[in-house]
Amino acid sequence: MRRIKVEQTRSLSITKKMVIAAYKKVKSNQGSAGVDRVDLVAYQEDLTNNLYKLWNRLSSGSYFPTMVREVLIPKSNGKYRKLGIPTVEDRIAQQVIKSYLEPRLEAVFHKQSYGYRPSKSAHQAVERVRENVRHYGWVIDMDIKSFFDEVAHDLLMKALDCHVEEKWIKMYVKRWLEASVKDAQGQIHPKDGKGTPQGGVISPLLANLFLHYVLDKWLEKYHKSVPFVRYADDVILHCVSENKANEVLSAIRARLAECHLGLNEDKTKVVYCQDYRREPKQYCKHFDFLGFRFKPCSVKSKRGGMFLGFDCAISPGAKKRIATRWKELKFSRWTTADLQQIANEVNPILRGIVQYYGRFKRWELSKVFRVFHFRLAKWVLNKYKRFRRSYKRAYDWLHKIRDSFPNLFYHWSLGFRTM
Predict the structure, then answer these.
(1) Where are the beta strands (DSSP E) in 64-119?
(2) Read out DSSP for 248-261?
(3) pTM of the entire structure?
(4) pLDDT at 10 exceeding the cut of 60
(5) Across the strands, what pairs with 244?
């Protein structure tokens, strides 16, 4: 990229340096093309002029976003999640405002809000829930229905007014909120005063601001004795009793209705966190949070024994998604490839699985890797006819390979076996 001379903008507080930094951030995050079908590679072909034009429009107030491309992502229940993909240029523009605004909002966000925040992570949120269930026997597993589709623009702008005086920031946020959506069939849908695209760069920041006032501040004011953990719109609340949990859940329903939101009643539930200290009850005893399932399980004591605890490991839903990923890769059909080539392709995926889901009860990943090894055994049978369609012989061969090359696949280096 040719060096662009940095100078102060003419009317708004946007510099060329801010635009360049935003571009670098968007580039590092990659992402698909928007409705204009211009991806990052195509955008970079005339990068200097493209960034200059964007800065010129942003700094003069003449920037207007393009409509958002809607993509449907399949969910485990057979339904679809709507993902809104802005153009590359719009993502850069949103990153400019996000970088400018984020430090200001970070200073006021609640400490138990973990989603899409600097220095906060999903693992920290899960760890906080693990700590809370040791002290509180009841959990509200809360799911907000179609949150990103239902965010009320007027309430969001009201929340923004509390922290932002600059009219140009509010002007651009309003334009992004009002940008139409183009679906896969080419039909254009106006926003009608609600919704922020789940996929926009600035959407998580706006969502956190909205829920900061809808839930975080409200819980702190009216239910201070109820600890909670929020990761974007995924919320877990901890209560001392069943009655308290039902009371708080009823209050939350009313609060969300005031803010033009609602609960997904099929997914929202009260859970009993049974462990060795709590008497058995005929009640739901598990919940999922950020890809981990919390449930009663055997826990090893520091003194060497075992006791019934309430802890987490990779969820059944996450296992299913990973198994589907192996199936979709179809590496069992890569008969022209050797084992090293397959390892080069899948090791980044294996590493990501271990680093995220292996944080708690890593041995539970054995079931995930069992599916991977089955796909690998299919590759052996497809490639080498001498095994005569015998899975046992294929597994025996893989076991010998593992003994000889224990670092070939990432999870082998950690001690996971092929059987």
Answers:
(1) 68-74, 80-85
(2) HHHHHHHHHHHTT-
(3) 0.91
(4) no
(5) none
